[in-house]
Amino acid sequence: MLDITAPTTEKTTNVPAINELVLEQINSQIANQLNTGVLVLDADFNIVLWNRFLQVHTDKISDNIIGQSIFSAFPELPQRWLTRKLSSVLQLNTPSFCSWQQRHHLFELPHTRPITTDSEFMAQNCTFLPIETDATDKHICILIEDVTDACHYQMQLQKTLAEIAQISRIDGLTQIYNRRHWQDSLEQEYAKARRHNKKLSLIMLDLDHFKLLNDNYGHQGGDMVLTEVSALISTLLRVEDTFGRYGGEEFAIILPETDSAGAIELAQRICRIIATTPLTYNDQVINVTVSLGVAQLSDKESNYEELITQTDSALYKAKSEGRNQVCSAAELVS
Amino acid sequence: MNEFHLTEDQQDCLQELINIAMGQASDQLARYLDTFVYLKVPSIESVEAKDLMKTLSQQKNTMAVVSQGFFGYEGIRGESLLVYQEEDSGRIADLLGYEPDELSQDEQLIDISSILTTTFLNVFAQQIDNRLSYNAPKLLPNVQEILSEHLQQMPFTWELALKVNINYQVTDYSFNCNMILLIPETAITNIKHVLDRILEEY
């Protein structure tokens, strides 16, 4: 291991020994050309030394800062927290760290990438090191690394991941939730309703004669209908309802804390509004209707899949009884 | 049994070194925290890579893992993992002497981990006439899935890990965590040399 503080080496006898002054100059030049801030404090947290990196990144003048308390030189520092941190370094004789991921920066230093980053200050990783010298009191060395780039890329990555997560939940055509996410939501709502003994209802709906629509207007016409109907239904829902595309032309709505009367009322409104809202495609008016099945969670279902089965049976009944209507699972039992 | 396993003598010697290190570390810690720290004798076991994966993936309520690399002379290096269970994390800010709103839960875990790791390993290093440096501690994200992935992606191959079970009780409440020291094969060989040297001296 290279130890730059070591005085002349003993082993290299044929090489002329470097005198201590030269060695000191080398050390000081390295310290001044580092792209890392170096700040040394005494045991009372007064500044003993700082390197060029900090001098050029702050507007403070070197003469004024040496001997000053770190807290008066950098009033932006969180004094109570940092005092505790620095005390741990002195007392335990161990290094301490502070990452930008927990605290974006400690020192308010400008950075050179103003356009691409969110913060006006340099993101920093700081290391606090105990320094033992011949002096009776210990010193603390603070290393300040500029991690603005890493911080920026990490933020972008997180943003992208959030976008991908969002995309993975959304149906590409209709922009409502896809089946996978809808089903995950139902599983959660089912567990919640069971745990807290709350009401829960489901609506499943199907576009009537969708195959005919596709045959008459082409698949693009069919796609338009799916998109428009999804948008229309979305406007009728509460924020806590989860609306998803269950299959080709089949949709499903989770209604937390809703009994079957409330669900039937909503289903009937959806049925009526879709039947009375003509859609236009290539200057042609398309009239669409939907059939809807409704079920409320009861004591009988032992999992969320059984609630889907109930709702699906009600939907099947609405279809077989002439479409463009609402049928409730409760009617099936009687 | 392979070349990386410790002999009974080596194991005893290591346990003794760890006991002393842990004792001194907790003494320092007690003074720093200005409170009474009660420490149980740490149990150590060496675990093989594949077994460690199994144990860790079975710990269902693992809440957080903080990782910190260490490196010293004579090829002594590795990574320390501090594993916390959900119930352990309640009052770390109190323990560290911070105000509750002064630092986030993540920062509390990182701070206490760094203190535990470095105080312990510093004393341990002194015992074997070594001196360690440390990387910045990192909280591993999404522990459940990431931990085994993290272990597989280590830049070194390791056969043996040293699991040190630390149990700190601080006055009126208890604080538990597991410290796992992952030590690469070459470093194990080096540690064995050091242990043998110590055994010879006594």
Query: What is the fourth-level CATH superfamily of chain B?
Result: CheC-like
Mean of pLDDT of chain B: 77
CATH architecture of the largest domain in chain A: 2-Layer Sandwich
Shape of chain B: globular
Mean pLDDT of chain A: 89
Number of helices of chain B: 6
CATH topology (fold) name of the largest domain in chain A? Alpha-Beta Plaits
Task: Compose a concise summary of this entry.
Chain A has helices at residues 20-33, 52-57, 62-65, 70-73, 79-92, 148-167, 179-196, 210-234, 260-276, 304-320, 329-333, and strands at residues 36-41, 47-50, 96-98, 124-131, 139-146, 200-207, 242-245, 250-256, 279-281, 284-286, 290-296, 326-328.
Protein model, in words:
The complex is a heterodimer of chains A (334) and B (202). Chain A contains eleven helices and twelve strands. By secondary structure, chain A is an alpha+beta fold. The radius of gyration of chain A is 35 Å and the shape is elongated. In chain A, the strands form three sheets. Chain A has a five-stranded antiparallel β-sheet. A five-stranded mixed β-sheet of chain A has the order 7-8-6-11-12, sandwiched between helices. Helices cover 43% and strands 19% of the residues of chain A. The mean pLDDT of chain A is 89. Chain A folds into two domains: 20-155, PAS domain (Beta-Lactamase, 2-Layer Sandwich), CATH 3.30.450.20; 169-333, Alpha-Beta Plaits (2-Layer Sandwich), CATH 3.30.70.270. Chain B has 202 residues and is α+β, with helices and mostly antiparallel strands. Chain B has a single domain (8-201), classed as Chemotaxis protein chec (3-Layer(aba) Sandwich), CATH 3.40.1550. Chain B is built from six helices and eight strands, in the order H-E-E-H-E-E-H-H-E-E-H-E-E-H. Chain B has helices at residues 8-33, 49-58, 92-96, 105-127, 143-152, 185-201; strands at 37-39, 43-48, 62-72, 77-85, 132-134, 138-139, 160-170, 173-182. In chain B, a hairpin with a 2-residue loop joins strand 7 (160-170) and strand 8 (173-182). Chain B is globular, with a radius of gyration of 17 Å. Chain B starts with 7 loop residues before the first helix and ends with a helix. Chain A binds chain B through residues 1, 78, 80-81, 84, 87-88, 91-97, 99, 101-103, 125, 127, and chain B through 28-29, 31-32, 73, 96-99, 102-104, 106-107, 110-111, 114-115, 118-119, 122, 133-134, 136-139.
